[in-house]
Amino acid sequence: MWRLILLGDIALQRDCVEVRRLRAQKYAHLLAYLALWPNRARSRSELLEIFWPDEPIENAQMCLRTALASLRRQLGCPDLLLSGQRDLIKLTPGIVTTDVHEFERAVQDGDPAAIRLYQGSLLPGCYYDWALDEANRLDAVYEQFVNRPQRLSQAGTVLPAVRTNVPASSGVRHRLPSLISSFYGREQELGELQRVFGGGCRLLTLVGLGGIGKTRLAIEAGRALNTRVALAEFASVTIASEIPNIIGASLNISRMPSHDLVERLEVEISQEPTVLILDNVEELAETWDLGFVEQLLARVSSLRVLATSRIPLGLKGEQIFTVSPLSNQAARSLFLDRARCSLPDFAESGSLADLCDRLDCLPLAIELCATWAPVMSSQRMLDALSNRFHWRKTRNRNIPERHRSLSAVLRWTCPPDGELQRPLRDLSVLLGRWSLEAAEAILGSDSMELLDRLQDRALIQVGVNAGEHAFSILQTVREYALEGSSEDDLQPVRERHCRFYCRMAVGVARRHPIDPQGAFKKLDLEQQNIFAAFDFGLRQSEDLIDIVIQAFEATRWCWRVRGYESKVREILATIANLQADRFERPLVALVNRARANHAVNEGRFDDALNHCRAAIDVWEAIGNIEGLSEARRVFAVYLGEAGKYEESEEMFQLHLSGLIENDCSYMISLASFAAMLVESKKNFEKAEGYYAQMIAFWQAVPDGDSHVAVVKTAMAGCLISRGEFGIAEEHLRGAIPALSNHGERIREAMAWDTLAAALDGQEKRTEAILAREMAGRLRVDAHLVLNSVSLPA
């Protein structure tokens, strides 16, 4: 037998099983209607008139058949309804009982257990006339019962008077709606809300974007509180004078003249500690009409208020709690739950996680999208999201207009003609997380005030990263902000974005010798915006192209040692395809260098050497000694890679002769020369001499330990080739920690691979396997840095 709970909540219990969600809320109300009067058969026409009054008769009949079939299936009771009565509907006796019947029997017997059974009003949140009438009747029965000073049992003995102050653990005090749908995630938020409210906070406002789940979180938090809790809904209220009536209704106080109601409210709330959940008060907060709430808090010390709003209330003593999107796991669970309400066998696929990410894990976006489950797979929904988000509206008709689409939510928060629309649009060119300096570069001198106002409305997200504020914009908000904007509109903003991030990239690269880990961390954090700046700038004027290439050359080695090789090659290919004949000569030389590098990547060594010669000719023509020296080094390296070892050594000697010995630039070039000697002539002895010279130099230079580690790794390769495995291992054991400390993932992976070879030479098989596994993990980590985020097209 199923036990149907209808007082204060709605749920089904049987044995150790409890069900709090049926396929649809209307199905639960239909079951409640039949169970409340189990001995009374209902005609189908009566049920159609009550539950589907606005549907055409054919549709209504289909809805009723579907509802009854669903109830049989969900309760596992094929014989839920009496058979043999085609036009009459009646529950089979003994299938379902209710807590209402238990309560009324206890009242009739004078049993104090009636108080425990009465967990709250009947079917909260159900507004059918029959439900409201029955709720009022049962409330009156309960009030009469608890106010009787003494009662006689059936045996004639006097029972003790019932205490009206129900224990705090009783659910009688919760006047919250019955929500049939399941609740996912938010464990951390619920714990934090309990901690804050338990710590003396009296006015807490849940602030967040519309549809992010503020109302549901407030209700679930209210259920967990050990006190009387009532929900007052203000979504459609715009007049301050209505506030007392709405609060009064939430406490079951009938409507009366405002003066009397205010006094009665204060008296009623003062009787016991109370938490009022004021839901959707942004309209009133926008017009500063919440003074009554502030006065009520001042007059009733036992009152606490939990409000939900898209903007802070601006009241004295208010504490703000920003509601964030769901975790991806919770978002997937929510999506599947809602999708299977309309298509029970909706399949979970690998694209579901990407779909939830694309929806920013916003509960409203997920619920809207899930309504399309009967006609679209999750992959098809993900593909459709590329067409902006205006199609993301619900197929359900019982959703409030303000939540029927994401655009409806955002139009209130940031009207298309409002003063925040343009700054939000401009900030939307920023990707991932970005700094205050980036916002200042985009918005100018008003950035602080604008960021504050945008954050108040939850249009931007704010977090703390390494002690610094980091901002971001949800993809949903970005698409709304950019909708209707042309590339011409965004051109000046993108130019400011490009110049700022190119300057930043160069500055971070220069900071690397002083703070290598900090520099790499900054580049990883900003790589989306830096690469977007590179991609944009290379399609613009010569001025921006020059800035981008300079920034790219300054940071290219950083990207490579962190594992961004594929993106480096992509940028090189873009530069190589530029029409260099329209540029000034220094830029022509840089383009030719990029062309040479790109040609080597494709194995076209003759083309690479021709591009190197062209670059050298340009530097010689304009008399740029620094550019000429670097071009010769690159030329020497590519000659070696092309197998022209004699010419490579000659070019290296020419290049080195133009540098000062025992200078950093000299030592860096010497490393390339030594590597060529090893590769070409297998001249390990000469190369090792150079390596020893470099190690001695870098050991004497402040912050030279990463160079020492790189050279030791190269020297270890020579030693392995000569069979000196133990000495090679010693060099590598010293090099790996330094490379790790500097965050040079790819070089560290190469060092682990080389160590594995040294260990193999000593027949240390197990250690060699572990070393190769470590190298593999480092390469995977390096690729994940780039693959964890999506770069713009």
Detailed description of the structure:
Helix content is 58%, strand content 8%. A hairpin with a 2-residue loop joins strand 2 and strand 3 (17-19). The strands form five sheets. Strands 9-11-12-13-10-14 form a six-stranded parallel beta sheet, with helices on both faces. Helix 27 (605-622) runs antiparallel to helix 28 (625-641), helix 31 runs antiparallel to helix 32 and helix 32 runs parallel beside helix 34. By secondary structure, the protein is α/β, with parallel strands linked by helices. Residues 150-172 and 785-793 have low confidence and may be disordered. The chain contains 35 helices and 16 strands.
What's the short version?
This protein is α/β, with parallel strands linked by helices and 793 residues long.
